[in-house]
What we know:
Elements: E1 4-5, E2 20-21, H1 59-62, H2 66-71, H3 109-113, H4 135-158, H5 164-179
Antiparallel strand pairs: 1-2
Amino acid sequence: CIPIPIPSGDPRIPSRPDSCIPAFRSAPACGTGYSAFNFGGESNKREQINSLTAFLDLGQVYGSDEKLALNLRNLTSDAGLLRVNTQFRDNGRELLPFHSLQVQMCATRRRVTNNTNAREVPCFIAGDGRVDENIALTSIHTLFVREHNRLARQLKRLNPHWDSETLYQEARKIMGAYTQ
Length: 180
Ligand SMILES: *[C@@H]1O[C@H](CO)[C@@H](O)[C@H](O)[C@H]1NC(C)=O
Ligand SMILES: *[C@@H]1O[C@H](CO)[C@@H](O)[C@H](O)[C@H]1NC(C)=O
């Protein structure tokens, strides 16, 4: 923890005695940068633990662990699709599914616009938890999901005998190749 102290009387942030902006460094990966104040250097450079897969396999779209990966798939059909939003579409095009979070931190329209008629919507879910971090990133995630589903549908048309798992894996392989 390397907190940034707030000077007393700072007009932008009402400060209490000893108040600060908390800042936390990620834990170092084993065997790298032991010193708390070693910000790099030729030897023993500090590195963070990667919570996504190390491969260019579009883990950010498909999920980097099995539980999330299964949660993102449409298992009610045999078409190898990724799950999409069942409440909203964009002119007929697919949107990301909503996150089933208890606390809806993306539901801010009323607070921001004061419009009591504004319809609150939950956060989106994708293979990377940062999908809701900014709208440009959300749109790229949306394109990847649409493209997976487009490929899976085309593959099913060409190979009507393929099962859901094969369609999913083959579409995913093509998507991974795009990324690489
Ligand atoms: C799953 O796929 C079926 C068939 O395309 C579709 O009707 C359904 O809406 C999809 N469900 C989700 C959650 O994406
Ligand atoms: C929202 O409405 C309240 C009460 O009418 C008002 O005091 C406040 O300034 C408004 N906020 C915005 C962001 O318009």
